[in-house]
Design brief:
Number of strands: 21
Mean pLDDT: 83
Distance between the termini: 27 Å
Order of helices and strands: EEEHEEEEEEEEEEEEEEEEEE
Radius of gyration: 29 Å
Number of domains: 2
Structural class: mainly beta
Strand content: 35-45%
Helix content: under 10%
Low-confidence stretches: 1-31, 59-69
Largest sheet: 8 strands, antiparallel
Length: about 325
């Protein structure tokens, strides 16, 4: 569910990091949604509610006495959580808290820190005889993977997308609540409560284009021209470099692939410019044939517009590629 974790030394101690818990973390008696016993201090920072509290039998004794203890654990210092979508072609978002820092009094130790999404423990970092705990921003790498979700809400803080074919950045997807909780050996706890929206997964839209020639190896030598594809050769081509109105941010193109004048039997395989070659061919041919085939061709994942064509023949062959639409 989550990206791999790099072991870290926190304040001179080696923490135990556990991911993907479905039950309570060690030292946690209740779920993130439960209300605390006796709240000793509270504030709001950047829209995140922060509390210091004590619960269990000690909470009842404190409440009956009417003299709340002075908090000996700090508020958790952590930026407001963010949600990012590295690849808009996938319904995969990542929630990241940046970092988290908490301290205890000199007479107590931090037992651990838990990170919740909803009422599920996403990660637990165990302390080891330390009066403070710092969880760095790269401990969880990109963050915790969640579903971005379908479009649900327009973000009023972002100007609508007006460029033809662009993805509208205003639309927000799933909402998530989160809690960060730390506990010290004196049974005091510190917690942050917040919520956020992730970018929506909008999928791809298809945009038609007038048929346009991207590659023709019969033309003079050039990035999108000759020479013919050599035997067993692989060649990179940038579809968006042609004057065919395919934007650099396109995910895939609808194409007609043609071969002509092959000197030996074989096949061509077309695939994204940054991917491994698939086992299936795009078009097969015999010597002297002219053949064509339609295909939807994914482009490189870095949005460079690059494709790769592989000649699975022992002879040279001319290659022609026409585009009639794109996905974005």
């Amino acid at each position: 569910m989550f990206e791999g974790i790099l072991p870290r030394v926190l304040k001179g101690a080696l923490p135990l990091v556990l991911l993907g818990f479905t039950g309570p973390a060690a030292g946690e008696e209740r779920g993130a949604a439960d209300s605390p016993g006796t709240v000793l201090a509270t504030d709001v920072k950047d829209g995140v509610r922060r509390e210091i509290y004590v619960d269990g039998p000690q909470a009842r004794e404190t409440a009956s006495a009417g003299t709340p203890r002075k908090p000996l654990i700090s508020f958790i210092d952590s930026p407001n959580a963010t949600c990012s979508q590295p690849d808009p072609r996938r319904d995969e978002c990542y929630i990241d808290w940046g970092y988290a820092y908490v301290t205890a009094s000199t007479s107590q130790y931090i037992i651990g820190m838990s990170f919740y999404l909803g009422d599920k423990v996403a990660a637990y970092v165990s302390g080891f005889f330390q009066t403070s705990m710092y969880v760095p921003n790269d401990m969880f790498r990109r963050g915790f993977k969640v579903k971005c979700g379908p479009p649900q809400l327009a973000d009023p803080n972002i100007t609508p997308c007006s460029t033809p074919g662009c993805m509208d950045p205003r639309v927000l997807g799933n909402a998530y609540s989160y809690t960060i909780r730390a506990r010290e050996t004196g049974n005091l706890k510190s917690a942050n409560y917040g919520s956020l929206y992730c970018p929506a997964f909008q999928g791809a839209k298809f945009y038609t284009l007038p048929p346009c020639r991207v590659v023709d190896t019969r033309n003079p030598a050039g990035p999108l021209g000759g020479p013919a594809l050599a035997a067993s050769a692989t060649r990179d081509l940038v579809v968006s470099a042609a004057s065919c109105s395919v934007p650099s941010g396109a995910w895939a193109v609808s194409v007609n692939a043609t071969i002509t004048s092959p000197s030996a039997p074989g096949y061509l395989t077309l695939y994204p410019g940054d991917a491994a070659a698939p086992l299936a061919s795009t078009i097969n041919f015999a010597p002297g044939q002219t053949r064509a085939n339609n295909a939807v061709l994914p482009l490189a994942s870095d949005f460079s517009g690059k494709i790769r064509v592989r000649n699975g023949s022992t002879g040279a062959v001319h290659f022609i590629l026409d585009v009639n639409g794109y996905f974005q």
